[in-house]
Design brief:
One of its GO terms (molecular function) is 1-phosphatidylinositol-4-phosphate 5-kinase activity. The protein is α+β, with helices and mostly antiparallel strands. It has twelve helices and 34 strands. The strands form four sheets. The chain has a 17-stranded antiparallel β-sheet. The protein has an eight-stranded antiparallel β-sheet with strand order 20-23-24-25-27-26-22-21. Strands 29-28-31-33-32-30-34 form a seven-stranded mixed β-sheet. Strand 16 and strand 17 form a beta hairpin.
């Protein structure tokens, strides 16, 4: 008898008692499987007389499929087809804790159709892939919960029906273990909801029908309750139409009787109280996952390596499975399961899945991302305004007015301003005839009038922002002409850039001018109190009035150009946190480094160093509180990204990847190593070289959106990181929630989900904006 066979016998004697007990339990669950032993001429088999002491062994040559029955060193039991050192074909495996799998194997992995049973009585029958419940299958829990449908890596994913032990039933779509998209939930009393779901809760557009009296609600939902426009209908034909909210102050609507006159003894808040009794059942937890179970296998008799343990999905136990071992919360047989896991566990699972994919240990479930490339370099923005341009005279008037206004102003002595300085009536008119006056120079343009709004305030702002008056005049009024951007903005305003890109000039509507003047005192106090504020910087507010028959007024504001940096900007994003219309309408071939992309185009999560991230959180909160108090909405976070490393072929190089010879480097941009960045950020005294939102080193993690989710704002992280320098700030802060925006909100709410549109109340806008931004920006740990 060989040494290996002796070990088998000893193992058998030690574990016989508990193994036989486990075998009986397994046979009671799955039934017996006949074992037809196949032998070769040189094989040796044991006799029936010593079956109580020896397991049958087979010394078939390596690489040949044969039948085997083995008690493994740790007490596990396997019977079925064997190939080399692994179960392969059809077989049954019993773990000492009572878990059992019977079905198809491939090189030691559960692959194909099979059954997995737990000691609690729970059972899964269906398809497996690499150790995971994956494909179509049915899970029956120990308490009677049943799910029949599609699975992906132990999670309900796709179409499926779940019947709960309490009598509730859900029939619809699932995503990563939770109800998502379209689905119908029927409670045990017969009432049901049919419509949209998000992350396991009723959210979106849908209908709820009460079984007791036939009443129904049709409209929009959020977190299980009516939110937004909706209609409540009684079975007698009467109905109530209005805006629904948990906040009684925001509730309003109209009752339409069916024809019978009479007072309505009903309160819309009763609907919320009634719906609070209809809970979505979470179900029960799946016990230990099949992919967590390990196999104890022997190597071929022709090998001398020490026996190793491998998991069901084929991973050798050398530390790779530690992340899964940490998920012992699934080991309990109570509570929710893999199909109903909490968000923390879900993130852990996502991270483990991505790690295994990266190491090639499992096949990726998502399409392989195409390698990222640097976008095409865009031309210098704007058309130079030269003689003959339609706005040439306007540019001359602008330059003359600013030269006059800034040049004659006295230096600011104190930043403490009187209230009268912010009075909208505080303005100076100056006439500029072509021949000149005692105070104005002669010029070649037509006569015009120049107005300065609140000149002392903007002079103080320029000092606060450390703008040198001489440099300011030289940038705007120097020999170099302004550049007009190719097309006006969505608001109809025109934008002009100075030749050095430091300043941007925007034409203003009268309503915007009024908003800025109204909030000017609050704006001044805010930027003075918060040096790191992200809101756009205003340097001047002016008006040019053309004389003669036209009598045209052109108002404009001078702002800082956020993207004036020594770094070239490779990607630009305008982010609001809404989804309706928030994607670029350009084909891929026309997108370059100057293209401003939107929320649904975003494919990154930005990770900031801890100290900067905490400051970012605080400042965004302060800025949004300021804008909310001023009743401002429709603002956005403008983000510019400079990728620090790319190959000569234009492919971006992920952090940690070695750069091939011929590495791309932007020779005009400063370079910071990772060590330099860490040292710089850990020492606050060295922060002067960077500021919040300006030239900030960060890491950008690539994301990918699910193809089945049209309006997924933030994609799934891929674990692919890029070293970047970021520039960002809050822009477009002059739109208040006026009557036009209220009408826009009412109109679009009828056609679309109210939470997806930009025109919403400033309080809601601020909350939604922050929620989105704090998902896109995270702490780099």
């Amino acid at each position: 008898m060989s040494k290996e066979q002796s070990c088998v016998l000893k193992a058998w004697e030690v574990t016989m008692r508990k193994t036989q007990q486990a075998k009986k339990r397994a046979n009671s669950i799955f039934g017996t499987v006949p074992v037809a032993l196949q032998t070769d001429d040189d094989a040796t088999t044991t006799t029936e007389e010593n079956d109580d002491h020896e397991s049958s062994t087979n010394t078939s040559s390596v690489g040949e499929l044969y039948q085997e029955e083995r008690v493994l060193p740790n007490g596990d039991y396997y019977t079925g087809q064997w190939y080399d050192s692994f179960p392969h074909g059809h077989g049954k495996y019993l773990w000492t804790d009572g878990c059992m799998y019977i079905g198809e194997w491939y090189n030691g992995k559960t692959m194909g159709k099979g059954k997995f049973g737990w000691p609690s009585g729970a059972m899964y029958e269906g398809e497996f892939k690499s150790g995971y419940m994956d494909g179509t299958g049915t899970y029956t829990g120990p308490s009677g919960d049943t799910y029949k449908g599609q699975w992906v890596m132990n999670l309900k994913h796709g179409r499926g029906i779940k019947s709960f032990a309490n009598g509730d039933v859900y029939d619809g779509e699932w995503r990563r273990g939770l109800q998502e998209a379209q689905g119908k939930y029927r409670w045990r009393d017969g009432s049901y909801y049919i419509g949209e779901w998000k992350n396991g809760t009723i959210s979106g557009k849908g209908t709820f029908v009460w079984s007791t009296d036939g009443d129904r609600y049709d409209g929009f939902w959020d977190d299980g309750f009516p939110t937004g426009n909706g209609t409540f209908k009684w079975d007698d034909g009467s109905f109530y139409v209005g805006h629904w909210s948990k906040d009684p102050e925001e509730m309003n609507g109209t009752y339409y009787p069916s024809g019978k006159e009479g007072a309505l003894d009903w309160d819309p808040k009763d609907v919320f109280d009634n719906l609070s009794e209809y809970k979505i059942c979470s179900g029960e937890r799946v016990p230990v996952l099949p992919s967590q179970k390990k196999l104890s296998v022997w190597n071929s008799s022709k090998r001398v390596e020490k026996p190793r343990r491998i998991s069901v999905d084929g991973r050798v136990s050398v530390g790779l499975d530690r992340a899964f071992e940490k998920m012992n919360m699934w080991g309990s047989e109570s509570g929710e399961g893999a199909a109903d896991i909490d968000s923390t566990t879900r993130r852990d699972l996502d991270a483990e899945i991505m790690r295994l994919e990266a190491e090639g240990l499992i096949q990726s479930l998502r399409p392989s991302p195409v390698p990222m490339r640097l976008p095409k370099a865009g031309k210098k923005q704007g058309e130079t305004i030269s003689k003959g341009h339609r706005n040439y005279e306007l540019m001359l008037n602008l330059q003359l007015g600013i030269r006059h206004a800034v040049g004659k102003q006295a230096q600011v002595v104190s930043l403490d301003l009187k209230h009268s300085a912010f009075d909208p009536k505080e303005k100076l008119w100056t006439r500029f005839p072509p021949e000149g006056t005692k105070y104005t120079p002669p010029h070649q343009s037509s006569e015009f009038k120049w107005k300065d709004y609140c000149p002392l305030v903007f002079r103080s702002l320029r000092k606060l922002f450390k703008v040198d008056p001489a440099d300011y005049m030289l940038s705007i009024c120097g020999n170099d002409a302004l550049r007009e951007l190719s097309s006006p903005g969505k608001s109809g305003s025109f934008f002009y850039l100075t030749n050095d890109d430091r300043y941007m000039i925007k034409t203003m509507k009268k309503s915007e001018t009024k908003v800025l003047l109204r909030m000017l005192a609050a704006y001044y106090n805010h930027v003075r109190a918060f040096e790191n504020t992200l809101v756009i910087r205003f340097y001047g507010l002016h008006c040019v009035k053309l004389t003669g028959t036209i009598q045209k007024k052109v108002r404009f504001v001078i702002m800082g150009n956020l993207f004036c940096s020594e770094y070239s900007i490779h990607r630009r994003f305008d982010l609001k946190g809404s989804s309706l219309g928030r994607t670029t309408d350009k084909p891929e071939s026309e997108i370059n480094s100057n293209t401003i992309l939107k929320d649904l185009d975003l494919n990154f999560i930005f990770r900031l160093q801890k100290a900067w991230f905490q400051e970012f959180i605080r400042q965004v909160d302060k800025d949004c509180e300021f804008l909310e108090q001023e009743r401002i909405m429709d603002y956005s976070l403008l983000v510019g990204i400079h990728f620090r490393e790319a190959s000569v072929a234009g492919e971006l190089i992920p952090s940690g990847a070695r750069t091939p010879i011929g590495e791309f480097e932007d020779e005009t941009a400063p370079r910071l190593s990772r060590v330099d960045v860490d040292q710089l950020l850990s020492d606050p005294t060295r922060w002067a070289s960077i500021r919040l939102g300006g030239n900030m080193p960060a890491r950008a993690e690539r994301t990918m959106r699910r193809s089945d989710c049209e309006f997924q704002l933030v994609g799934e992280p891929t674990g692919e990181y890029y070293e970047v320098v970021m520039i960002f700030g809050i822009i477009d802060i002059l739109q208040d929630y006026d009557i036009s925006k209220k009408l826009e909100h009412a109109y679009k709410s009828i056609q679309y989900d109210p939470t997806s549109i930009s025109a919403v109340d400033p309080r809601l806008y601020s909350r939604r904006f922050r929620d989105f931004i704090f998902k896109v920006f995270t702490e780099d740990d």
